[in-house]
Design goal:
The complex is a heterodimer.
Chain A: H1 26-51, H2 56-61, H3 73-79, H4 90-121, H5 127-136, H6 142-156, H7 162-170, H8 173-186, H9 189-197, H10 202-213, H11 215-231, H12 234-239, H13 248-261, H14 268-288, H15 290-300
Helix pairs in contact in A: 1-14, 3-14, 4-7, 4-8, 4-11, 4-13, 8-11, 9-10, 11-15, 13-14
Chain B: H1 2-27, H2 35-41, H3 44-77, H4 83-91, H5 98-109, H6 115-122, H7 136-161, H8 165-173, H9 178-189, H10 191-206, H11 210-218, H12 229-239, H13 243-270
Helix pairs in contact in B: 2-13, 3-7, 3-10, 4-7, 5-11, 10-13, 12-13
InterPro entries (chain A): MetI-like (IPR000515), MetI-like_sf (IPR035906)
Keywords (chain A): Cell membrane, Membrane, Transmembrane, Transmembrane helix, Transport
Organism (chain A): Streptantibioticus parmotrematis
Amino acid sequence: MSPRRRTPRRPADGVPIRLYGLRRGTTGLLTAVSALFAAFVLAPLVWLAINATKTQANVYGTAGFWFARPFRLWQNLAALGHDVSGAGIYLEWLGNTLLYAVVSAVGSTVLSAMAGYGFSRYRFRGAGTLFRLVMSTLLVPITALSLPLFLVYAKVGLVNSVWGMILPSVVSPVGIYLMRTYIDASVPRDLIEAARIDGAGELRIFLRIALPLTVPGLVTVLLLTLVAVWNNYFLPLVIFSRSSLYPLTVGLSTLSQAAETGTQADLVPVLITGGLVTVLPLIALFLLLERYFRGGVLQGSTTG
Amino acid sequence: MLALALFMVVPTVYAVWESLHRTLLVGGTRFSGLANYRTVLHSGAFWSGVWRVLLFAAVQVPLTIGIAFFFAVIFETGLVRFGRFFRTVFFMPFAVPGVVASVMWSFLLLPGLGPFPKLLKDLGLGNVDFFSSRLIVPTVVVIVVWEWTGYNMTVLYTSLKAVPREVIEAAVMDGAGLRTVILRMKLPMVAPTITMLAFINTVGALQLFTEPSIMSAFQPQAVSFGFTPTLYVYNTAVGTSDFNLGAAAAVVLALVIGVLSLAAFAVRRRNGEFR
């Protein structure tokens, strides 16, 4: 037996790697390569965290990957509450993003659950066609739709309206597809039949029997929509012209424009600190609920 | 029955809602026939953007998927220590908005001031301008690879886990080496996933917008009016307020992507993957 036995790791494919008869050091080498890529992934985030503590002069003047005096993190954070650039207030954008993301996520989860349940459990006329129709809207990307949406909004008065952002985010073909597959797999038909025979109403069956069985699927759709709306840039950029309605992404981009072209001092630290505060909640959420994200990605991998 | 109606109505409304946009945008306020389309199709700026994203996609998509598959397969085979930790780290950029990613990378690569150009200069490689017309596309490739490799890796990893263990075991018992197992067995078995990822990545690449638009705030001369088709759409519609022309460009873009998607769907249907 080789000395490798002292590290009894179980690979995901279940086949012990010593069977391959690899040269010694292969594992070490590949680990080093992975570490290198991890450094590439982490470098910008580390840079962001470090530079959120600097003054504008120090962002450019000192070593990028180490701290410099004076330590300005608290002042930089405080600046997020003021209209430093004339472009708007960061905290307001944060509030908007929270509002858009949470309302859209909840709405899209409810809608996807209902539509998914409908497609999964009822055989009505044209169900197949209708489902294919919903799925075909996946083909047309939101980027290409944003401008047409804006033109419609201009007609119906939804420009610079919160609903203009939320409504399209609520309708999620991916969510419907995920929920349908999830319900297909996790809600036994017999159970529904039994409940019907016992005289339970359709709504009651949906709420009391089907929904509790699909909670992990619901959480996945909720999280995926939350991230998608949190990170959406093009749609709000096109439909909002009033800065008090901006979400974080659009706010930060106007801020970066102001920071680079304006003559005012000290916008760069605000931009960097703002970026950090934008990223942190999502990374935290993601680390806490990683398996749900993976679940969504897994199911997403079987669709498109 | 009520539930039934509800479930039928909701998606139908959505479909109508959807079709509404497409019909309305073509007409615009005044009927002008296909004049806008002619302008778009004859616009040098539009086509240069189209070629640029095609070139971009041709580099970025294989690169992203290649790196993603490499890491997915070495993690899954257990060839790396701390694989779980690495998988979490690699997936993290998925949670970072494109805007923030572009801001970070712009600062890091800023000519003369960013840490990376400084480092290259200290290494004796001279002044490298990542925003120059020669390097801007590779720079955007690096940023997008940073953003999406982890996602692709995670999808491939999950897909690799579905490869039946017995098959691999049997092959190894028969003396198959690591290379054979990875290239001859695991790779073909996840080929459908790779096709799907190639499709998703390509559609994403064709819509490239956030990264160049943020970078133009840092170096305006680096990113032209029609750097990508989506930028062209945005700049014509919002920048010069020619909404009808912008809408026409948006339709052309949507059509191109739609046709690509249909082709991809046809392939997948033939492979029996889509119900």
